[in-house]
């Protein structure tokens, strides 16, 4: 039984679902943050978030890479960089579509001035990654989608839409079903399971090796 109270915004309203996920995935930075040869690159690197809070350009790259890392629940920009490099090695088409999707979703969240911390930790970019990777997969059918500008435009638009849907549905879910938001299983698995099949299809296709 979960005895932890559900985080709320000012006025006592429950947080949107995606912001609850952010609270679960985010870990606090301490003075004893793990180091790699004296460099704080392990864990979730929240110190980097603090340092980039007032640097929009660098912070955008940080948020984009974190969104990529969140595909496997790794809130770390270096991990995200390694993942996207691996995707480009497997298939440049998959890599560019995934990167475009993540960037588009992140930029949309910034444009709508959504929760800065959730943006910074890749919550919105994650969905854009899944959209881009899924479109890359379906673009292989018939061979007409690969490197087709129309598919790239679709990735940009649908990834941006994913941010709007996440914000809208997350807020609706929190206000409509607040008791269920107290379940950490629901908070983590509801959005994750919805996208995992698409991620698996996109990254496991042997056809990507030739594109």
Automatic annotation (TrEMBL):
<feature type="transmembrane region" description="Helical">
    <location>
        <begin position="149"/>
        <end position="174"/>
    </location>
</feature>
<feature type="transmembrane region" description="Helical">
    <location>
        <begin position="95"/>
        <end position="112"/>
    </location>
</feature>
<keyword id="KW-1003">Cell membrane</keyword>
<feature type="transmembrane region" description="Helical">
    <location>
        <begin position="71"/>
        <end position="89"/>
    </location>
</feature>
<keyword id="KW-0472">Membrane</keyword>
<dbReference type="GO" id="GO:0005886">
    <property type="term" value="C:plasma membrane"/>
</dbReference>
<dbReference type="InterPro" id="IPR029020">
    <property type="entry name" value="Ammonium/urea_transptr"/>
</dbReference>
<keyword id="KW-0812">Transmembrane</keyword>
<keyword id="KW-1133">Transmembrane helix</keyword>
<dbReference type="GO" id="GO:0015204">
    <property type="term" value="F:urea transmembrane transporter activity"/>
</dbReference>
<dbReference type="InterPro" id="IPR004937">
    <property type="entry name" value="Urea_transporter"/>
</dbReference>
<feature type="transmembrane region" description="Helical">
    <location>
        <begin position="124"/>
        <end position="143"/>
    </location>
</feature>
<comment type="similarity">
    <text>Belongs to the urea transporter family.</text>
</comment>
<protein>
    <recommendedName>
        <fullName>Urea transporter</fullName>
    </recommendedName>
</protein>
<dbReference type="Pfam" id="PF03253">
    <property type="entry name" value="UT"/>
</dbReference>
């Amino acid at each position: 039984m979960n005895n932890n109270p559900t985080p709320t915004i000012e006025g006592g309203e429950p947080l949107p679902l995606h912001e609850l996920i952010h609270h679960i995935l985010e870990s606090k930075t301490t003075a004893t943050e793990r180091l790699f040869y004296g460099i704080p690159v392990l864990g979730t690197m929240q110190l980097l978030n603090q340092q980039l809070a007032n640097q929009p350009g660098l912070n955008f790259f940080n948020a984009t890479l974190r969104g990529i890392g969140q595909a496997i629940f790794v809130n770390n920009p270096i991990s995200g960089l390694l993942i996207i490099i691996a995707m480009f090695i497997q298939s440049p088409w998959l890599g560019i579509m995934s990167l475009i999707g993540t960037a588009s979703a992140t930029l949309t969240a910034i444009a709508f001035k959504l929760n800065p911390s959730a943006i910074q930790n890749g919550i919105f970019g994650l969905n854009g990654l899944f959209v881009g990777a899924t479109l890359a997969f379906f673009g292989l059918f018939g061979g007409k989608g690969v490197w087709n500008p129309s598919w790239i435009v679709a990735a940009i638009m649908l990834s941006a839409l994913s941010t709007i849907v996440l914000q809208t549905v997350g807020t609706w879910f929190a206000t409509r079903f607040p008791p269920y938001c107290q379940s950490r299983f629901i908070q983590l698995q509801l959005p994750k399971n919805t996208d995992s099949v698409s991620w698996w299809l996109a990254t496991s296709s042997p056809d990507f090796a030739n594109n």
